[in-house]
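Much of our argument rests on the idea that a fold can be written as discrete symbols. Part of our work consisted of pairing the sequence of a single chain with a tokenised description of its backbone. We regard such an encoding as a compact summary of how the chain folds. The amino acid sequence and the backbone structure tokens for this protein are reproduced below.
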Amino acid sequence: MRIALVAEGCYPYVVGGVSSWIHSIIRSFPEHEFIVIAIIADRAMRGQFVYELPENLKEVHEVYLADVDWSDQSSTRKSHLGRKEYHALESVIANREVDWDTLFNMFRSKKISIDDVLMGEDFLYAVKSCYKKRFTDAVFSDFLWTMRSMYLPLFYVMKFNPPKADLYHCVATGYAGVIGSMARRRHRCGLLISEHGIYTREREEELIKAKWVKGVYKNIWIDQFKKMSTLAYGEADLITSLYGHARELQIELGAAPNKLVITPNGINMERFENLPGRLAEDEGFVNIGAVLRVTPIKDVKTMIRAFGYAKERRPALKLWIMGPTEEDEDYAKECFDLVETMHIPDVVFTGRINVTDYLGRMDFTILTSISEGQPLTILEGFAAHLPSIATDVGNCYGLIYGEDGDELGDAGIVTHIMNVQEIADAMIRLGSSSQLRKKMGEIGYERAKSKYRIQDMEKTYRGIYDDFAMSAFGQTSEKSEEVNDQGN
């Protein structure tokens, strides 16, 4: 079976939980042929892969959210939309029931220029109509340019011609879901959506905190992501999530309950056996391991502040921030500067690492994110017999305290988001008792072994892929029979 994995802003360009999961999925099913459709910001990232691509990954297609308009520049280029096309454009701008089929067909045409659409009279009239009905308190020129910037990436995505595959497997809704929905309608293939975090909610959280967008424009952007998720949920044959509450959020956002399946993450427990142990330089320290990308969504600055206060009360603590810093270099510099400004000793930024080289030296792990799904870094710590401190986002609470009848006990401490005092207190509590760390670490190990093994995840997805394969080949067989019948 030929499977197209569609991902936004991750594999194979950056490391992290979702990227690791995609890489694992491809390697776990060598019997299938994979292609990756990677949605990235622009051509500056072209071909900058940080993963060695598996042999059964045959193609990588890049989709840019900002690019040069490569439309046909000849005199035959279409400058005005037809009535049906205009109403479809108006439907998506006005956030009514969207005529996606007409939009997909419209942007498939080589004669349609994205620049011409955004700067043309049709787009202007559609935006004016929306503005007059709902947004007259805003300055129109600001409103118009916001709408142009909002629809530019969506139009580039709809310009993409999805290659044929038996199954489109989108690792989110959003722009990935739009591509998957286009492919399903164009190629009559299967569509599987696997959400690690709930895309719409994550974008909503980011927008609420964002400084670059203000006032009513926050809601307009949130509505934009919701309409894309509604499309993907409606088109999908099957939608997976990592835990129960995520499934509830999907239903709240419009996903049909009969399409939903819970598929927990899984890790290779054997990979974390016999890890290299502590070094001479670790003597006298309680090592805290934060395996993450140094980006705002991980809220590393709150972690650093909390560590600074905990370090004053528990001098033996040492913080290891282990992961790439180049994804958001400005934010990474702010983190480096914060360590210097607060004069905090014993904070180490390692950059990108092989996690198995370091986890054996750690005493516990920490994650202070403002948004997560079901973090692999917590599970990897559990596999190494390490407890975890984590903020109450995604499935962190369930991983650490247990769920669904799990009575093993606490495998760490959960704190509120951005609560420096709570996080510092948790560091001090775990840093002060080796006995407590050992007890919680063993609970985490047993929880990971019982519910989050990679073999269980592979079994689940093998069943899902097999079902899609049977459906795809069954449909092919039926179509062939119809052609033969007609020929006779």
